Amino acid sequence: SMLLEGFDWRMPTRTWQPGELIREDHALTLPSGLQPQSLFVGMYRQTPDGQFVRLGQARWVYSNGHWVQR
Protein backbone atom coordinates (compact mmCIF):
# COMPACT_ATOMS: atom_id res chain seq x y z
CA SER A 1 0.00 0.00 0.00
CA MET A 2 1.06 3.59 -0.55
CA LEU A 3 1.03 6.25 2.20
CA LEU A 4 -0.19 9.67 1.09
CA GLU A 5 0.30 12.62 3.45
CA GLY A 6 -0.40 16.32 3.77
CA PHE A 7 -3.56 16.85 1.74
CA ASP A 8 -5.18 19.26 4.23
CA TRP A 9 -8.72 18.02 3.43
CA ARG A 10 -8.17 18.33 -0.34
CA MET A 11 -8.48 14.60 -0.99
CA PRO A 12 -12.14 13.61 -0.48
CA THR A 13 -12.87 10.02 0.48
CA ARG A 14 -14.57 9.41 -2.88
CA THR A 15 -11.12 9.71 -4.51
CA TRP A 16 -9.43 7.15 -2.25
CA GLN A 17 -8.31 3.89 -3.83
CA PRO A 18 -8.25 0.43 -2.22
CA GLY A 19 -4.98 -0.12 -0.40
CA GLU A 20 -4.12 3.58 -0.05
CA LEU A 21 -3.30 4.89 3.41
CA ILE A 22 -4.31 8.52 3.82
CA ARG A 23 -2.77 10.42 6.71
CA GLU A 24 -3.76 13.89 7.88
CA ASP A 25 -2.65 15.32 11.19
CA HIS A 26 -4.96 17.68 13.04
CA ALA A 27 -4.54 19.46 16.38
CA LEU A 28 -7.26 19.05 18.96
CA THR A 29 -7.57 22.12 21.19
CA LEU A 30 -9.09 21.41 24.59
CA PRO A 31 -10.46 23.85 27.16
CA SER A 32 -7.95 25.05 29.74
CA GLY A 33 -7.73 22.76 32.74
CA LEU A 34 -9.28 19.76 31.00
CA GLN A 35 -7.15 16.64 31.38
CA PRO A 36 -8.57 13.89 29.15
CA GLN A 37 -7.69 10.27 29.88
CA SER A 38 -8.70 8.73 26.56
CA LEU A 39 -9.63 9.63 22.99
CA PHE A 40 -11.81 7.63 20.59
CA VAL A 41 -11.97 8.23 16.84
CA GLY A 42 -13.87 6.42 14.13
CA MET A 43 -14.72 6.39 10.47
CA TYR A 44 -18.26 5.92 9.24
CA ARG A 45 -20.13 5.45 5.98
CA GLN A 46 -23.68 6.71 5.54
CA THR A 47 -26.08 4.26 3.90
CA PRO A 48 -28.74 5.36 1.40
CA ASP A 49 -31.42 5.14 4.13
CA GLY A 50 -29.48 7.61 6.33
CA GLN A 51 -28.00 5.14 8.81
CA PHE A 52 -24.29 5.13 9.66
CA VAL A 53 -22.07 2.03 9.50
CA ARG A 54 -18.80 2.13 11.44
CA LEU A 55 -15.88 1.19 9.20
CA GLY A 56 -13.18 1.39 11.86
CA GLN A 57 -12.20 2.87 15.17
CA ALA A 58 -9.15 3.62 17.27
CA ARG A 59 -8.57 4.47 20.93
CA TRP A 60 -5.72 6.30 22.61
CA VAL A 61 -5.04 6.43 26.35
CA TYR A 62 -2.97 9.08 28.13
CA SER A 63 -0.38 7.25 30.20
CA ASN A 64 2.80 8.52 31.87
CA GLY A 65 2.75 11.79 29.91
CA HIS A 66 2.22 10.18 26.48
CA TRP A 67 -0.70 9.15 24.27
CA VAL A 68 -0.62 5.38 23.59
CA GLN A 69 -2.84 3.67 21.05
CA ARG A 70 -4.75 0.73 22.48
What report would you give on this structure?
The structure is a single chain. Helix content is 0%, strand content 44%. A hairpin with a 2-residue loop joins strand 4 and strand 5 (66-69). By secondary structure, the protein is mainly beta. The strands form two sheets. The chain has a three-stranded antiparallel β-sheet with strand order 3-4-5, with no helix packed on it. Strands 1-2 form a two-stranded parallel sheet.
What's the layout of helices and strands?
Elements: E1 3-5, E2 21-23, E3 38-46, E4 52-63, E5 66-69
Parallel strand pairs: 1-2
Antiparallel strand pairs: 3-4, 4-5
Question: Which structural traits does this protein have?
Answer:
single chain, 70 residues, mainly beta, three-stranded antiparallel β-sheet, two-stranded parallel ribbon, 5 strands
Summed over residues and divided by their number, the pLDDT gives a mean of 82
Series of H and E elements: EEEEE
Approximate strand percentage: 35-45%
Question: What topology, given as strand order, has the largest sheet?
Answer: 3-4-5
The shape, in one word, is elongated
Q: From the helix content, strand content and strand pairing, which structural class follows?
A: mainly beta
Please tell me how large the radius of gyration is.
Answer: 15 Å
Query: Regions with pLDDT < 50 over 5+ consecutive residues?
Result: none
Number of helical regions: 0
Helix content: under 10%
Main sheet properties: 3 strands, antiparallel
Task: Find the count of extended strands (DSSP E, 2+ residues).
Answer: 5
Distance between the termini: 23 Å
